[in-house]
Amino acid sequence: MTIAEAAPRLAKGRLKSEKLTEDCLSKIEELNAKLNAFITVTAEDALAAARQADKDIAAGRYRGPLHGIPVSLKDLLDQKGLPTTAGSSVRKDHVADTDAVVTARLRDAGAVFVGKTNLHEFAFGTTSEDSAFGPVRNPKDPTRSPGGSSGGSAVAIATGMSLGTVGTDTGGSIRIPAAACGIVGLKPEWGQLSASGVVPLSRQLDHVGPLAASVTDAWIQYNAMLPGELRVGADLEPTPVKGLRLGMMSGYLFDRIDADVERVTVAAIESLRKAGATITEVALPHATDMPAIYLHLVFGDAAEYHARTLVSRPQDYTPNVRLRLEMARYVLAEDYIRALRGKAIITREIDRALDGVDALVLPSLSIPAPPIGAATMPVKGGPDPVRTLMLRCTQPFNLSGHPAISLPSGTTPAGLPIGLQLAGHKGKTPALVQAALAVERLLATA
Amino acid sequence: MAKADAEQRGLPELIPALEGLAQATERLRAADWNDDADKETPFDSAQGKPKQ
């Protein structure tokens, strides 16, 4: 059941939050030992909150479409009274003394928190396999990664362990697991959703956003997490596909991708064209420089945040994350500044690519979910490192801060999900989501 | 220098990773926006650098 389906039934008393929450907790009980999506499950608190929601709704105090909805949080976000582990033993003694800003907003909207989800340690990876709590597994094939770093959140939605969830995205960590698990992930424009109370990876690239079973569900959560004055209502109408102007990213962002991803993406774009969308090819002249720009920014920022604990308790990091953080300490200030200049250039080029179109369209993830432990994956032109492949299509919009959304577009012959990504103009996240809603409806009928 | 430092700190497993970082740094330094250090970039504009 989606949030959009449950909300009107809850509002009318035809469905009880307690029942909905029990169903999610049952799914967690049934599947978590196998998939490892949750680090902390707050069953008793969740059921108490659900009963209270039912009472409030029955008394006429309905707060809106998240009231009584079971929601999980990536364990990088503070929830008052609970540990925020960041998937690491480094933070094993931490207990949040207050809610993160977005947690508080969801709480105000009536969300029922069922637990904290597993992730790649400190969000510093794309597969969710390096966690002090063990690897998260893809529900479509548990030998494969669910993507990351918000892997547990994506699995929670894909399996019905929660109806809503919140993740973070520094290089693609909402959109990558959304694509790998066959769900929707929205990275709003940078700075729109507060990152206060969220463990940082790179403060200038970190984005907070929802993962959900549908575009509408992502919108409902996003809207509730906005500051009150920016909320525009939970109802959303799709942009007509006829007349939609899309810029199809070419070159680096489309060259080295898996054959099934290419086939499904091209077919989706062709469906849009047939339905009346205008497709033009666009490219970013400095696209090949993006991995180097991204690496130096994330490394510089992560090295600063982890400097003390990397010295005082290095053994508490997982080996791969510790290695990358140690490597990060060798980034020179001059190269960090070069990367900042590069970030500005990429931002300008994406603005230019968007000139004259409503959104950019490209794959979300250049490969299907990789096997857990894989270092490289075969793509056209030979094997590439998994990390590079997974970040390739998403990191441009972390560097630039433009809003971007991933939605399911098909599967491989083996049934692994593939995601389509749309990126929109700054200041127009609602318009992007409206376009995504239209694409979602079209692809559902294609 | 970084490799020697890693060895001195007892982290030999870091050395292959540092080679990857060195390649990325080489790529960053070779980017064409470094060709003219005086040329204004959007980054400069964002910092409010006065136009000459």
Tell me about this structure.
The complex is a heterodimer of chains A (446) and B (52). Chain A has helices at 3-11, 17-35, 43-58, 101-108, 151-159, 175-181, 215-225, 252-255, 259-274, 290-312, 319-328, 333-354, 386-391, 396-400, 429-445; strands spanning 38-41, 70-74, 112-117, 164-169, 184-187, 207-212, 245-249, 278-282, 359-363, 376-379, 382-385, 404-411, 417-424. In chain A, helix 2 crosses helix 5 (151-159), helix 10 packs across helix 11 and helix 10 crosses helix 12. Chain A is built from 15 helices and 13 strands. Chain A is globular, with a radius of gyration of 20 Å. By secondary structure, chain A is of the alpha/beta class. Chain B is mainly α. Chain B has three helices and no strands. The termini of chain B are far apart. The chains are: A alpha/beta (446), B mainly alpha (52). At the A-B interface, helix 10, helix 11 and helix 12 of A face helix 1, helix 2 and helix 3 of B.
Task: Outline the secondary-structure elements.
The complex is a heterodimer of chains A (446) and B (52).
Chain A: H1 3-11, H2 17-35, E1 38-41, H3 43-58, E2 70-74, H4 101-108, E3 112-117, H5 151-159, E4 164-169, H6 175-181, E5 184-187, E6 207-212, H7 215-225, E7 245-249, H8 252-255, H9 259-274, E8 278-282, H10 290-312, H11 319-328, H12 333-354, E9 359-363, E10 376-379, E11 382-385, H13 386-391, H14 396-400, E12 404-411, E13 417-424, H15 429-445
Parallel strand pairs in A: 2-3, 2-4, 7-8, 7-9
Antiparallel strand pairs in A: 1-3, 4-6, 5-6, 5-12, 9-13, 10-11, 12-13
Helix pairs in contact in A: 2-3, 2-5, 10-11, 10-12
Chain B: H1 2-8, H2 14-30, H3 42-46
